[in-house]
Amino acid sequence: MSNTHHIVSAIKAFNDNYIWALASKNNDKIALVDPGDALVCIEYLQKNKLVLSAILITHHHRDHVGGIEKLLTYAKTKAWPVTVYGPANENIAQLDVTLKENDIVTLTELNCQLHILDLPGHTSGHIAYYNNDMLFCGDTLFSGGCGRLFEGTAEQMHSSLTKLANLPGNTLIYCAHEYTQANLAFALAVEPSNSDLHTYAEQVNLKRQQSQATLPSNIALERQINPFLRCHKASIKLAAQAYTNQSQSSDSEVFAAIRAWKDNF
């Protein structure tokens, strides 16, 4: 999937991770987003004759940071200078540049600028990288779902997801896992009367039958089908109320109810 200046490619890792390779159309330099597995990245670099110039990290979980050390060692053997970017509020040993909300990452060799969004919830210091075309959001927003709450509160995660829902509709979402099919099974349980959701679920099932990626998604689509971005909608509020046998007084309480439901789904 490409935009005007850049090409974004998925490198598959582990069971269902995507490591995103961000390339310029004008040279052989790339940045890698959340390289949990160094070996698949090195294979990708070699096969495509590419030069690693930056690593972008969204949060500290092992399947996102586990490949940094080996990649840096490999880059040294090639005399490639690599800058590692990541969240200021998480303990990740290899970071050269630490980032928080409103910071801007300028990847000069890729002719690319990315804005930083703070997205606490999945982890306490989770960040995303965003520009007008694309969003690298790690484990915060998935297609049809969102990340589990390991360190943050439901209120924080709801606020983070609302921030993402307010981005332009055509923003492409490059999240880190192929969870779409399972997410939509849950979304249909929450909102069975959503026709957009049924249509999308059919498209996703066809893609997965052919082992195709369901990503990137986009913000406009997620606003229509993702229950975690729809906590302000009556249909989701009623579903949360039915699940908990009580009414929720705020959208973040609705979010907490359906997140708990998903955890046990």
Automatic annotation (TrEMBL):
SMART domains reported for this sequence: Lactamase_B
Annotated Metallo-beta-lactamase domain residues: 16-177
Source organism, top-level taxon: Bacteria
This protein's UniProt keywords: Hydrolase, Metal-binding, Zinc
Pathway as given in its UniProt record: Secondary metabolite metabolism; methylglyoxal degradation; (R)-lactate from methylglyoxal: step 2/2
One family name in Pfam for this protein: Lactamase_B
Needed cofactors: Zn(2+)
Catalysed conversion reaction: an S-(2-hydroxyacyl)glutathione + H2O = a 2-hydroxy carboxylate + glutathione + H(+)
SUPFAM superfamilies: Metallo-hydrolase/oxidoreductase (SSF56281)
Record-listed Zn(2+) 1 binding positions: H59, H61, H122, D139
E.C. number(s) listed in UniProt: 3.1.2.6
Enzyme class, first EC level, given as a word: hydrolase
Subunit structure: Monomer.
Function: Thiolesterase that catalyzes the hydrolysis of S-D-lactoyl-glutathione to form glutathione and D-lactic acid.
Family of this protein: Belongs to the metallo-beta-lactamase superfamily. Glyoxalase II family.
Protein name as it appears in the record: Hydroxyacylglutathione hydrolase
Gene: gloB
